[in-house]
Amino acid sequence: MSVPGGEGGSIGGPRGGRAVRGAGDVERLLRAALAPVEPPADLSARVRGKLQSIREGAAEELEGWELAAMRDPRNWVRPAIAVVGGAAAGAGLLLLGMHQRRRSRSRKLLERAERTAADVASSTRKMFESH
Description:
Layout: E1 10-12, E2 18-20, H1 23-33, H2 43-63, H3 77-130
Antiparallel strand pairs: 1-2
Helix pairs in contact: 2-3
């Protein structure tokens, strides 16, 4: 089946539908573009360092404020920002720690499964070699 007024375009597909030429190329390109990307190894340490510096900066900002200065509402902005920033950084550190512990457990589980599979394969080989 040809397409009027054009070269290439599309060709007849199964059950009377149309298939685009080069569809395999599109699929290959999409798979390559959507392939998972591992983050850099030091990303976790860098994020942790940034969050800790934000939390420490917020604590220093709050230490510098005197309670007497808080009577004027115009002075509330900086301490409020310090509280929100410090709390957000603390929550980020907490989540990062939870994520790292979960990944550590899953790695250990994967290592155990690999060792078990290797042991089973080794035992099976020995069984068949002895017969």
